[in-house]
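Worked Example 4.2. Read the sequence first, then its structure tokens.
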Amino acid sequence: MENVLLGKKALNFILLLFSLLIFVNAQPKGYIYEESKVVNYSLPDPLICNDGKKVENKNFWSEKRRNEILRLFKDEVYGNSPQQPFGTDFKVIERETSALGGNATRRQVVIKVSNANRSLDINLLIYSPNEVKSPVPAFLTINFHGNHTVNCDPEIKITQSWVRNRNGIKNNRAREMDRGISSSRWSINQIIESGYAFATFYYGDVDPDFHDGFKNGVHGLFASEIKTKRKDTDWGSIAAWAWGLSRCMDYIHEDSLFDHKRIAVMGHSRLGKTALWAGAIDERFALIISNNSGCGGAALSRRRFGETVKRINTSFPHWFCENYKKYNENEEKCPVDQHMLISLAAPRPVYIASAEGDLWADPKGEFLSAIGAEPVYKLFGYGLGATEQPLVNEPVHGRIGYHIRSGKHDVTEYDWEQYLKFADKHFE
């Protein structure tokens, strides 16, 4: 028996080493993955105004400095969304009270956004707990592969929007066989059992994730995007996806099902960047969660650790505004860094999550952003609750929450356990 146990331990150790090797090899070569190679840098002070004045209290922050930083991010990083009016119509196309084994009610809602003679449909999937009386708090999320992939539920409508050709997908069309393929990321049953509603939409409904000169998706709704030359400060896809989150929030505020003051926004990877930006520009989000968001999300750009500004602008030229390309290999000249993005959430709770095996997203840089945002939170009497990056799987749940877990670039059950505990704490 003892030999069997020793054998199992040895096997587990080998598997762990193999996993770590995979993690290391998965990182693109030619980039910084060692702290000793990080160059010296200094961060812009979120509490020093453009005119040199020091922010001394929360009112001065809210009335002046926050607006300055928000403007800089709009003009230099994410871009400005169009300001012209548009029409919005909500239609509940399906409602089932016995979903998820009778534990939840499923709603499928079409949010139709129109401008002139163009329109766009955002398909919002909602599960709400049957054991909890309305209004209920909720997690609003944005998914990568279509609503039908977040759960095996056969009644979820398959997206008709563009999807990426991968894992056997052809002609950019979703398939029945892909139903539930991303269910491990969403822990929907756990969310429902904890008394929260779960809402999600497919990011490709708003803006397909490829570069065609900003003619597709929501960019095509606005005549100025097509008929005139884009400005260097015009919005990219991350701002477009964040705009979609706000349109879903418009619907949520019309539906008595939801507790409108307890809505959390959550996203992973590029959609973690999106969640942070959505939380910055739309203060209706009461809690913001960024999962493995990396460069252009929670990680400090000036560190140039893992993915860099040049690499992200080269690989994904449609994500940010044109001005952001000025900072390719020139990060120190950017008037903002990502700790200032985190600070825009203050005093609302914000959670930043990293993964030990995800060096490309710079876990330490994500934590240092939380540290850099703390002076703003202290204006409101809040903080992070840690001065050094915590050990793996030892979360910190201050007003700014943070954890680094074991594993790779993904969303796991462990992540959701922390998000639910964090929401319970701040939504009580």
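Now turn to a second chain, presented in exactly the same format:
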Amino acid sequence: MNTCKAAMRILKARKLYVIIYLVLIGTMMLSISWQIMRGSSATGSSTYEPKAARIAVIDRDNNAEHVAESLRSYLALDGEMVGIDDDSVSLQQAVASNYVDLIAIVPNGFAEHYLQYADGGTDVQPTIDTVVSYASGAGSLAQLEVNEFLSLTRTSYLGLPQSQRELGTAMTTVLDIANDDTKQSHIAVVSSPSEDESIAKPGASAFAGTIKTGLYPLLLVMPICTFLVVSTFNDSEIRRRLYSSPARTVSLEAPQMLTCGAFGLLVCVAYTAVTFLLMVLAGVSFDGLTVMNVGLSFVSLLTYTFMAIACGFLLGSAGFNEMATNGFVNVFALLVMFTSGMSFPVDMMPDPMITIGKLLPGWWFCTSIDQVFGIGTAASTGVNIGLWASSIGLVALFGVTFICLGLTFGRIRRTRPTLASPATTQLAK
């Protein structure tokens, strides 16, 4: 009991690691899942709504023939109109800051020159100057709409009787037709059948994807916390005092691991609860979730946490210092995350990365989650509890291996103890 209390005091004293590795990085991973959930819930719309471009129209022709006003009305059908000052500084800042996607500038004398062009008095078509934002594809599409408006206006103008040809009338006709098309034209969204059952069960896909994101923060915080506890008790002076007692080695080390295990269990429960909370907030249905697959997913998460604790036990027993442990854990966690299939779809990963992933526990953790829900790597085979058991068994085997190596290194260090303080020599005068 005293050992457990001491371990808890160690974790409390080094809570900065928990804040950085668990809270901050965990929040980052959950935020990514949140965005994916929101995106998936928005795909339920029956029609496609493109991103509206932010457009500013600068009138330098005093709205002659109502060109600028009509252009604003036409562009407002698909875009969002914004106002900016007509000076070089404001225009440059608007484009540089990506405040607008497109700036359309009606030059002085445009209406007069356009009438000449429409009547056939000149072959040179006057243009409306446009500036497209450097980071916007919507601005480029809006630029095409400007040219489309001018072309439709000329066509409508030439279609009017000779005595009724007015530029304002032609533009009004174009706007009326465009309004009717906007009301009647829609792009339908049709769901195509897929072998991936997650398409039909968004709840299962959202829950599984969020649980998988725990792979990275857990492999950061649990080895570090376990290392801090184990390395503290393995300090030379403390170790001499502990092993001078008649207590068995198991009775000394077991409370340390139990404390770290209890902390890991608490983290797993909290992560699962936050996953459900995010699903509720994102409006994702619980379709596809059952007590069995949620329970098996929790077992997978708990087993993976046990493996991470065992990794920290190995590092602490092997005599790593704090800096080396931090470096190793960060590199190892990143390697596991990028080769597990959690960060990238498996079909997009090159074969060497998949081969490396199968040699690490993260791949088998993600595979076990897939086997529970029949998604991802298990989309073609469906739910398979046997493959789940074998996958999570491999994760547990990694943990057992780390524990055995840690016990081995710990025994070697006990049989070859180092001095509590370095030897000193006195130079003879």
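Notes for the reader: The first strand starts at residue 54 and ends at 59. Residues 193-200, 419-429 have pLDDT under 50 and may be disordered.
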